Amino acid sequence: VEETLAETNLFCALRGSRGRVADESTRLDSTHPPPFWPETTTRRPPSATMRASLLSAALALLSIMEASECVRAFAPPTAPPLVAFGRPSSSASFQRRAPPSSTASTSATSVSALHASRDLNALASELNAAIDACTPTYFKNMRVKVAPSPSSSADSPARRLGLIAIEDIKPNKVALSVPYDDQIVLSASLAGDVWGDVLPEGYDGWTGERGLIALLVLNELAKASDDGGGDAAGGASGIDLPARKPEAKNLMAAWVKSLPSPEEMSEDGENGGICPHPLLWSEDDQELLQGSSTKKIYRTLDDIDEDSAWLNERVWSAADRTAKFPSEITLDGDGETTRACFSPEGFRWANAIVSSRAVYVDGALRLIPVLDMINHDDLNTEEVRGGYAGAFGTTPCAELRTSSRKYNAGEEVCASYGPLSAAEYLSDYGFIPSRAESIAVSELTFEVSSDDRFYDDKLDVLEFETYDSSPMDPVQKFDVVHQAGQPDDVPDPALMQFLRLSKLDGKDAFLLESIFRKEVWGFMSVPVSEMNEGMAVDAVMEACRVALGEMDETEESAISSSSSSGDGDDDDSASTSPAALCAVVRRAERKALTRTLEYMERERMALDLKEYYQERRLKDLGLDSEWNDDDENSDVGWGQTRAPGSGDLDW
Question: Of 25, 272, 503, 512, which residue is 20 to 30 A from 52 by alpha carbon distance?
Fold first, then answer.
């Protein structure tokens, strides 16, 4: 067993802590190491969870050896199943390693008890009292209050708490303004101040801004717990930063208690879940979503797991920090129920909170307490946007406006979450509004191959000659869109521009010479040659066919699973079960991919009708006209000093 475990440890250490293959992601490229790259090896050693999985695999091997009568005397009576390592890029049949979470197996009895112990009216009352104490210092134009959402619509069935008008609000008026005060507004820049003495300088995990704000959410959760509330140098839970006034402390404690628990966010919608989020779905449902969309949820899950594993090993589990960063806490009002905090489970929950509640406003992602309670509505609503408040209108803030709709006192005030695709709504918020179904969007990923003989030249063009404010990477994602009732949309011009550059080869490669370096990206905006254009069109067609094929496999698997289990759904679009939501995503993305494929097939047939670089260049030089010898006018043509084939020269 020890020899088998040692060999398997070495194998997994070489392949990476998640077993990814080198060509699946540039993260394994030693030229682009993460900020926490270990000094002694190219990948960090397997974590405790991975070692436990390896031990299970070794025990399973013993079971196989027992069957062949090799080590019958030493074999365990029951061997656990083999654990699959890593994940494929798109296979729908892959069984992803189960997350180290106990929430997926929560019994109906414990969930019911949790719901009973969490009185939404009591949570709203406590939060409203804290809001009143913070108005008008931290809240301006307060015309709403927090209360249980009066109803759930088909567009947003997972409503829990919402913002209710406390007075009549006229159209195009501000219902709530929240200044960007670091005492209550959570942002990535604030995370750098709070965690600056704990995390390495320049830390930037795979989860980016969302992960940093998730750390702030966990810190607020720890400080609001029964053991929290101490100073930064003491033994209480969490980091006591930023410095806050007493009323701001009470507000943040009441706000974090009002957030949905992991159990409330991980339940199946059709079984009574309040606000299920895909990050906390069961493994089978996440696998179904992986095969239903070109926006792969496994990428997000692996980003979260990578960051949480490193944080758990290097920060939270340090011997001198276990009291400061507890893996579990207990909140007032939860009774005996504990919450995962500074742990992989807690980090995943915090990322789900940030994903579904943070807004991108005034150039930054921000999680704004109270304003995050706003629910979505497609009709007559606006997105949360930046504005100004205060006596002189000079204080930057995020504001909620009523658009063209009038709200009466007692009505729920809603906002729009933005023009997102069905897959984006589902992965970020856990539901799909009807308007998102009418606009089909799918995502296609392309890259400049590292085996390309002109890879360095193309990388140089992308890095320095594309866009000054945002240079392009060698791996790019593009949306293909189709809107019902509209003619076929031309694909994103940047998509074809990128593909023409990536496929530049052969006789066309002269455009990569240094003399054209400043102009080559502009040349790619129009067809270069028939061969190059054909390769670019073929790349889009192949990507569409592959994505459609994966969705067909997922569809067949979902139908067979539904038939074997006896479950049926007469109206998938109205259902909130994960299977029905994934079916909606598949339908929407299939439309976009099919329309794009049809468009590219027509482009393929019309390649000989396009104008290419050589023809355009001849026109620019005035050499595109046909030669006509004019015998009647000797001044037209070659002139008097030189005739074709003549040796008579007038020096």
Answer: 25
Residue, of 380 and 564, whose pLDDT is higher:
380
Residue with tokens 């001849």: 618
CA gap 164, 151 in Å, rounded: 12
415 contacts: CB under 8 Å, gap ≥ 6: 374, 375, 376, 377, 381, 382, 383, 384, 400
* Number of residues that this document lists for the chain: 651
Distance CA 186, CA 358 (A): 9
pLDDT band at 147 (very low <50, low <70, confident <90, very high): very high
The pairing of beta strand 161-165 with beta strand 412-415: antiparallel
Other CB atoms closer than 10 Å to residue 39's CB: what's the count? Answer: 4
Spatial separation of the C-alpha atoms in residues 542 and 17, rounded to whole Å = 32
Q: Residue 363's pLDDT band (boundaries 50, 70, 90)?
A: very high
Measured CA distances, 48 to 9, 36, 83, 347 (Å): 12, 18, 15, 17
Helix (H, G, I), strand (E, B) or coil at 139: coil
Interior/surface letters 600-638, b for 16+ CB within 10 angstroms, e for the rest = beebeeeeeeeebbeeeeeeeeeeeeeeeeeeeeeeeee
Q: Which two three-digit tokens encode residue 377?
A: 């509505």
Angle between helices 297-311 and 283-292 (to 10 degrees): 130
- Kindly tell me the sign of the dihedral angle through the C-alpha atoms of 58, 59, 61, 62: positive
**Could you read off the pLDDT of 490-540 as tens digits, one per residue?**
889 999 999 999 999 999 999 999 999 899 999 999 999 999 999 999 999
pTM: 0.76
Residue 181 in contact with residue 148, Cβ under 8 Å?
no
Tell me 407's DSSP state: B
Do the Cβ atoms of 351 and 211 come closer than 8 Å? yes
Q: How many other C-beta atoms are found inside a 10 Å radius of the C-beta of residue 440?
A: 23
Backbone angles phi, psi at 328, to 5 degrees: -140, 150
Helices 283-292 and 578-605: crossing angle in degrees, nearest 10, is: 20
- Whether a cis peptide bond, with omega within 30° of 0, leads into 242 is yes
Phi, psi of 412 (to 5 degrees): -80, 130
Long-range interactions of 603-610: CB distance < 8 A, separation 24+: 603/537, 604/534, 604/537, 604/538, 604/541, 607/530, 607/533, 607/534, 607/537, 608/530, 610/527, 610/530, 610/533
Q: How far is CA 633 from the centre of its chain?
A: 71
Computed over every residue of the chain, the mean pLDDT equals 79
Residue 429 near residue 356, CB atoms below 8 Å: yes
Burial class (CB in 10 A: 0-12, 13-18, 19+), 317: middle
For residues 195 and 214, is the Cβ–Cβ distance under 8 A? Answer: no
What CA–CA distance (Å, rounded) separates 60 from 54?
10
Rg (CA), the chain: 30
Q: Are 54 and 17 in contact (CB under 8 A)?
A: no
Query: What number of other Cβ atoms are within 10 A of residue 389's Cβ?
Result: 21
Structure token pair of residue 465: 């000659």
Instruction: Report pLDDT for 231.
Output: 42
